[in-house]
Amino acid sequence: MIFKGVDFFPHGTRFPILEYRKVFVGLTLAAAVLSAALLLTRGLNFGVDFKGGSLIEIKAKSGTLDVVKLRETLNGLGVGEPQVQAVGDSEALIRIGQQPGADALAESRSQDAANKKVTGSLAANFDIRRTEVVGPAVSQELKSTAVLAIIASILGIAIYVWFRFEWQFALAAIVALIHDVFITTGLFSLLWYEFDLSVVAALLTLAGYSINDTVVIFDRVRENMRKYKKMEMVDLLNLSLNETLSRTVLTAGVTAIAVLALWLFGTTVIEAFTFAMLFGVIIGTYSSIFIAAPILLWLGVDRAAIVGEQKSDKATAAAKAGLP
Amino acid sequence: MSMLYFSRLYQAMILGICALGLLLCVPNFLSKDQFDALPKWAQNKIGLGLDLRGGAHMLMTIDTQQLRKDWMDNIRDDARRTLREGKLAGSPSVVGKAVEVRMANPADADVGLTALRRMIQSVGGSGFGGAANLKVDKGSDPGVIVIEPSDAGFTERVSNAIATSIEVIRKRIDSSGTKEANIVRQGFDRILIQIPGVEDTAQLKELIGKTAKLTFHDVHPTMTPEEARRTRVPSGFKIFPAVRGEFATEYLLKETAVVGGEDLADAHGAFDQRSSEPIISFRFNQKGARAFGEFTRVNVGRPFAIVLDNTVLSAPVIRDAILGGSGQISGSFTAESANNLAVQLRSGALQAPLTIVEERVVGASLGQDSIEAGKRAAIIGMIGVAAFMIFAYGLFGLFASLCAALQIGLIIAIMTLMGSTMTLPGIAGIVLTLGMAVDSNVLIYERIREELRNKSSPLKAIEAGFSRAYLTILDSQLTSFVAGLIMFVLGSGPIRGFAVTLTLGVVTTIFTAFTVTRLIVSWWVRSQGTSKIEAPLSYKMART
User: What is the mean predicted confidence (pLDDT) over B2-30?
Assistant: First the structure.
């Protein structure tokens, strides 16, 4: 007798998910509009990577850190208004804006001087744990590469899905993907969390992750199209969503456990990353179920073509089974 | 039972790969003594990135405008000499990105063109491959000849400057006692310097940033800089500012140096024997000694100027001919600045100034904290995922957890083989992989449950679970792979470290899901001894 695990997730459900598609799509559209509005009016709280300037992480040599006093000290230094963000009791992040200068060399010098002033005034009571300085040229580049990377990965994934499925599937998957990236970015604007390179890494990862669920559901949709040739498309999609629901939710749960571990026990360095990932896992799962499927329904799929494909697909499966 | 059949050879291959992978991991987990006790060939482990071990990362950019200007200035000087030698009247000057030679008599243009073309051929336009790198043509105005560098020529020029700069920086950093610096070119005009263990970069920047171009110049015999400013700076001369504390604030010097820093054989910081102030004592190589000796012999009683980066350090009067080829430079140094300058002079001059455009410094204490946090997150993540999987799938969940642990081992093994470094984002990638890796198992197991519900026999259900889930696993993993690949290609520093582990996570997920999990399950099936095995997973029947 072995332990066979607990089959706790309800099975054989027949949630009429697509009947509420207008609600979900409406909700999503609202979130998307809100995100767009936030991004346009408020923008993002760019970190040093994208804004330029310096970031200094300090830790009190003993006792706790008095943020108010720290702010006073820093404001008196004449390096603009450094931002102070307390981390725990004894640590803080200090951000200094890009210092002016006539050219790149002068900018770099004055930034250096500002850093020196700040670290010099703190050296007696604090350990300088980390310093990051990014010049204006580099921050511009990092920004454009980040945008390029996001576009390239969405395109890359789109091409892959298009190659594997019909174009309607690919389009639906891509809309869901863009939705995830967009809403997550919007959330960063809403919460005014710092948006830096690591968040971009999280966006790229969540793009690759979120598409997983969508692909798994679409795989099932295709399978069911061959199995139930006469079923209404709405019912077929509903059936597929329900059949894959346990898998979709369970994998999201496991991934969330891993990300949660990072979030609870990680350091300030990857906090933004894990937050984006955690939200991404949730929204990625949401979009796979509530966004991608309705779009597929609206786009319509040429069912005859998919049924016709079956033969060649079977041949591949047979070839696969023949492998050692 | 094709899905669960493994030939002995195939089993041996799978086990071999796993064993090899785990063996390769081992050195990463040994203490330093144990590691050192390993035979040399086995001493491979993943290096720690600067964010984990502490250190400085500096991205510098070379001043390409200055490089172009210096190049054009050289060509202008060459052109001037060529015209003089050819007894042609014309005035070369730098205009924008090119040198324009305006012939006094437009009829001379053809002769001038031939002469200048020959100059470019022979001297290579002050650089190798000059003929291809420079275009000499008639300009639009009559009597004007334009010498213009080609794009390829300029690119080569920058490449050469970067290569020599890297050498110079390496020498400077090495002589400051810091080892293990990693200095590489990045992009077109950048140099990336990574130095582990360095927390205070101020001194380093001082050392690296200076071009340290040392030259010895003739001082104009009669005219003072003020006179020159009032009337006209004589051709071939230029006004140089002097360092503070020098006798005069500026000097009128011959533009072409008598001898330069490239002819120094040695330089080091010292103290003057009489005044005991810090100085730099230097020695020329043979060529430099000869030129300097000749110059001082002819000019006894007159001053000459020692110029560093276009600023006059001192302008002593020559008392005797200096034939031995050695001398000393004074000029309000501190012991430290004298030493720094000596290092810079020994290592040679940079061709153009370097500006820091990005700098990231991580203290060793934060690095250590990050390692601890990363380990903790990995362990908690592992336990959490395993607990979840065992709760949901029992024994098969345990199999999946073992495979996830094996996968981490394989990722570390591949990274060891590739000689890559582990960074904090890299650890994040591994922890994330943990969650995503068992995804493939969830797919398979859920499928098995579904088949069981459809009244398949347990064996058939397992078979179908594996075979049906495969394409889906491949699909879902390959999309992550695409994202990881793009991150690796386009990403910089931190994103790259993450992309590496994420991509390896995908590769190892596909490997373990397709082979190891299946193999373990096939063993379990065989251990049951009968073809009528019990269902390996619990399942509720669907509600009706």
Answer: 87
Alpha helices by DSSP H, listed for chain A, are: 21-41, 48-51, 67-75, 104-122, 136-164, 167-191, 197-227, 233-265, 271-287, 293-299, 303-321
User: The domain containing residue B256 runs over which residues?
Assistant: 210-349
Cβ distance of B360 and A132 shorter than 8 Å: yes
Is B202's Cβ below 8 Å from some Cβ in A? yes
Beta-bridge mates of residue B317: B303
CA distance B15 to B10: 9
Give B191's strand partners.
Answer: B60, B185
CB contact under 8 A, B487 and A255: no
Does residue B397 sit at the A interface (CB-CB below 8 Å)?
yes
Q: Are A84 and A94 in contact (CB under 8 A)?
A: yes
Question: Both tokens of residue B510?
Answer: 């596909």
Q: Which residues pair with A254 in a beta bridge?
A: none
Coil, helix or strand at residue B434: helix
> Same domain, yes or no, for B327 and B220?
yes
Q: Are residues B40 and B138 in the same domain?
A: no
Whether B373 and B522 map to the same domain: the answer is: yes
Mean pLDDT along residues A206-228: 87
Percent of chain B with pLDDT strictly greater than 70:
96
A320, pLDDT greater than 60: no
**With an 8 Å Cβ cutoff, is B260 touching chain A?**
no
Interface of B with A in 217-256 (CB under 8 A): none
| Closest CA in chain B for residue A91 | B366
- Better-scored residue on pLDDT, A202 or B436: A202
What span, in angstroms and rounded, lies between the C-alpha atoms of A31 and A130? Answer: 37
Query: Do B63 and B185 sit in the same domain of this protein?
Result: yes
Within a domain: B204:
no
What is the mean pLDDT of the segment spanning A26-54? 92
Among B409, B471, B392, which residue's Cα sits nearest to residue A253? B392
**Residue of A177, A204, A246 to mutate when probing chain B, most B C-beta within 10 A:** A204
Which CA distances in Å does B166 have to B158, B172, B204, B233?
A: 12, 10, 14, 37
Residues on chain A touching B385 (C-beta within 8 angstroms): 254, 257-258
List the alpha helices (DSSP H) in B43-141.
Answer: 50-53, 64-85, 109-123, 130-133
CATH number reported for the structural domain that contains residue B234 in this entry: 3.30.1360.200
Spatial separation of the C-alpha atoms in residues A111 and A116, rounded to whole Å: 9
Q: How many CA atoms lie within 13 A of A278 on its CB side?
A: 15
Cβ–Cβ contact B422 with A under 8 A: no
* pLDDT at residue A1 in the model: 63
Q: Distance (Å, rounded) from C-alpha B369 to C-alpha B364?
A: 9
Cα–Cα distances in angstroms (integers) from residue B281 to residues B244, B275, B342, in the given order: 21, 14, 8
Beta bridge partners of A158: none
**For residue B125, is pLDDT > 80?**
no
Contact B484/A266, CB-based, under 8 Å?
A: no
pLDDT tops 60 at residue B126: no
**Contact status of B441 with chain A (Cβ, < 8 Å):** no
Query: Among the residues of B302-363, which ranges form H helices?
Result: 335-347
**Own/partner pairs for A318-322, CB < 8 Å, 24+ apart?**
A320/B467, A320/B470, A320/B471, A321/B2, A321/B3, A321/B467, A322/B2
Q: Which domains does chain A have, with CATH numbers?
A: 17-43+139-308 (1.20.1640.10), 53-134 (3.30.70.3400)
Contact of B270 with chain A, judged by CB distance below 8 Å, is answered with: no
CB contact at 8 A, B291 and B204? no
Whether residue B126 sits in one domain with residue B257: no
pTM: 0.80
B163 falls within a domain: yes
Mean per-residue pLDDT for A91-101? 88
